[in-house]
């Protein structure tokens, strides 16, 4: 089952295996996390910047920003969407319907994530353009803590940053060093629709920020 409220200290023993802090090599049991865009690929990076600029210009909370029943409809099993699928760049709508369908979708996303050796997954990566992400830094079903975030917003980010090598299920075979804030303060809703705020650091902060990029 997908736990809704993460613990700020939810760091599994596997987190020490993350190739982080200027480490450029990957351990043999490296779990793939989600890379927004491969920074070592100039064409992709330029395209990514264009998408980000567009997303910010178009940002608002109008009625059509909320997902309709058809936006939330899915047929399992879900499959990973890979670049250059346009769904990876489409606008992701906010969610205001918290029901059994949404819980089922989150469970299905965890299934795909574990099967593909991921530790995080965003909804657009399974072709759903909605503000939903799941992650479990442990990367194994039954271990660590499963986290589901709906409509997440970053309230604060530390000036201190860390460099870490990331991969992405939607960009198979591509890895790149990505610099991100070491800790972030987040505002989100859980799978039941309850609003909450919390701080993330270490591996959970890294995974969250990667997934969050997919939702912008
Ligand atoms: Zn990714």
TrEMBL record:
Its cofactor is Fe(2+). One of its GO terms (cellular component) is chloroplast. It catalyses: N-terminal N-formyl-L-methionyl-[peptide] + H2O = N-terminal L-methionyl-[peptide] + formate. Keywords: Chloroplast, Hydrolase, Iron, Metal-binding, Plastid, Protein biosynthesis, Transit peptide. The keyword Plastid applies. Gene3D superfamilies: Peptide deformylase. Its EC number is 3.5.1.88. It is found in: Plastid, Chloroplast. One of its GO terms (molecular function) is peptide deformylase activity. One of its GO terms (biological process) is translation. Its main location: plastid. The keyword Phosphoprotein does not apply. Belongs to the polypeptide deformylase family. PANTHER family: PEPTIDE DEFORMYLASE. Removes the formyl group from the N-terminal Met of newly synthesized proteins. NCBIfam families: pept_deformyl, PRK00150.1-3. This is Peptide deformylase.
């Amino acid at each position: 089952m997908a736990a809704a409220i993460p613990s700020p200290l939810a760091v599994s023993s596997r987190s020490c295996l993350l190739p982080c802090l200027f480490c450029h090599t990957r351990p043999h049991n490296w779990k793939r996390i989600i890379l927004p865009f491969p920074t070592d690929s100039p064409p992709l990076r330029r395209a990514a910047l264009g998408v980000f600029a567009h997303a910010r210009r178009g940002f608002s909370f109008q009625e059509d920003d909320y997902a309709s029943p058809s936006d939330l409809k899915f047929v399992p099993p879900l499959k990973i969407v890979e670049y250059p699928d346009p769904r990876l760049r489409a606008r992701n709508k906010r969610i205001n319907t918290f029901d059994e369908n949404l819980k089922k979708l989150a469970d299905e996303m965890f299934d795909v994530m574990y099967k593909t050796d991921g530790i995080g997954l965003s909804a657009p990566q399974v072709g759903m353009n909605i503000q939903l992400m799941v992650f479990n830094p442990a990367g194994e079903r039954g271990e660590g803590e499963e986290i589901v975030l709906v409509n997440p917003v970053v309230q604060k980010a530390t000036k201190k940053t860390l460099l870490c090598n990331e991969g992405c299920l939607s960009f198979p075979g591509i890895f790149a060093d990505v610099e991100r804030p070491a800790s972030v303060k987040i505002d989100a809703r859980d799978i039941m629709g309850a609003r909450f705020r919390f701080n993330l650091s270490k591996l959970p902060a890294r995974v969250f920020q990667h997934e969050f990029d997919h939702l912008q």
